[in-house]
Design goal:
aminoacyl-trna synthetase; 8 strands; globular; three-stranded mixed sheet; about 250 residues; Glu/Gln-tRNA-synth_Ib_cat-dom; alpha/beta; Rossmann fold; about 15% strand
Length: about 250
């Protein structure tokens, strides 16, 4: 359960998500880990990097980095916080270039220093970053394949770099196309997108299968639908606009 940003947690949301997944036949075969309860694990990973001088404290704000296109350079722009705020902690990326093969979108490459710079591992408010948390979580759970939305494709190089730096295995990645609204924006609760109906899951499941380019199946129960769909599923049919090598850079 990705609630590492405790400042944005909505009471009851986690339970609602798990109940909706269960209604769609998607239940975890292992206990659900909760990120907000795993700070000790994340702190241990950060300490490992700090001891190797691969992580450092940083007082740079987004405003400070605006002149650099939001990309943190190899050295901090400011030397300290005038108001006494605690620092964030960043990872030194050096001259790392990360190449990987995505299961849908093919060969990918990112030069970290140019694309994202030294990125945050723990924010100044004490919350650990998504990048650090998911890397530690995936390793602890023995995750071997990650399937997620294409909006996270440019996060993958940072996570692979962290995996290599921490001596953790790298899973296989497959990024799915996003369902967009009429304005070309991804559906999200922030934009008041309608939720899926857990009282009637099959219409949404059928729509998702068609969107992913798969053959239709007409089973009348969720369990049978998922069984048949999984047996017939062909990743080669998943649409992706980027089938060739793409350098993921902000420019």
């Amino acid at each position: 359960m990705e609630d590492v940003d405790t400042t944005r947690v909505v009471p009851g949301a986690a339970e609602d998500i798990l109940e909706t997944l269960a209604a769609f036949g998607l239940e975890s075969d292992a206990p659900v880990l909760v990120q907000s309860e795993r700070s000790v694990r994340y702190a241990g990973a950060l300490e490992q990097l700090r001891k190797r001088d691969l992580a450092y404290p940083c007082h740079c704000s987004r405003g400070d980095l605006a002149a650099f296109g939001g990309v943190h350079p190899s050295r901090c722009v400011v030397s300290g916080a005038a108001d006494g705020r605690p620092p964030a902690w960043r990872l030194r990326v050096g001259a790392s270039v990360v190449d990987f093969e995505d299961g849908v979108c093919g060969a990918q490459s990112q030069e970290l220093a140019r694309s994202v710079g030294d990125f945050v591992l723990r924010r100044s408010d004490g919350c650990y970053s998504y990048q650090l948390a998911v890397v530690v979580d995936d390793a602890d759970q023995g995750v071997t394949e990650i399937v997620r939305g294409a909006d996270l494709l440019d996060s993958t190089p940072r996570q692979i770099h962290l995996q290599r730096t921490l001596g953790l295995p790298t899973p296989a990645y497959l990024h799915l196309p996003l369902v967009l609204d009429s304005s070309g924006r991804k559906l999200s609760k922030h934009d008041l997108a309608r939720p899926v109906d857990r009282a009637d899951p099959l219409p949404a499941l059928r729509a998702a299968l068609a969107f992913l380019g798969q053959h239709a199946t007409r089973e009348s129960t969720v369990g049978e639908f998922l069984r048949v769909a999984a047996n017939r599923f062909d990743p080669a049919r998943i649409p992706c606009e980027r089938k060739t090598h793409v350098a993921l850079r902000k420019d």
